[in-house]
Amino acid sequence: MPTLRVFVVDDHPVVREMICSLLSQEPALRVVCRTADGEEAVEKADELRPDLVVLDIGLAGITGIEAARRIRKVSPESKIIFLSQFDSLHMASEVLKVGGHGFVAKIDAGSDLLKAVRTVCAGGRFVSQQIVDQGWKQEESV
User: What is the CATH number of the domain that holds 102?
Assistant: First the structure.
């Protein structure tokens, strides 16, 4: 896998650092930016055009879902993996409908985030095992 530029957006500094630490385990990934704010996420995505955005849903100001809508407009090539403390089937379905390529429940980030990155970068869609266990069907991601 070629080196991919990753942008991390999460409003909790400890979680943001944990995500960056996980991503640094993969030599093909390079974190190019990190922020805590949805508005800034859109601006930086427009400026940097990252290959991948790891985006928290629950941000202050505009939500991660709204930020994703805007990012899809300014950087349509960027793939988006949502990260959320909410591990509901409904939430996963909604974020994939707004242009997300993956959904990782924060509780599963340690085991699922790098799998999600590999899957999404290979052209697939990814949802955490928590969501699969709730009855996820692949067609829900369309």
Answer: 3.40.50.2300
Examine residue 135 and state whether it is found in any structural domain, yes or no: no
Range of the domain at 115: 4-130
- Residue 75: closest CA among 38, 39, 46: 46
Dihedral of the alpha carbons of 134, 121, 100, 129, in degrees to the nearest 10: 10
- Please tell me the total count of domains within the chain: 1
pLDDT of residue 52: 97
Give Cα separations from 18 to 25, 53, 109, 117 (angstroms). Answer: 11, 15, 9, 15
Quick: pLDDT tens for 57-109. Answer: 989 889 999 999 999 999 999 999 999 887 777 778 888 888 899 999 888 89
- Local confidence band at 127 (pLDDT 50, 70, 90 cut-offs): confident
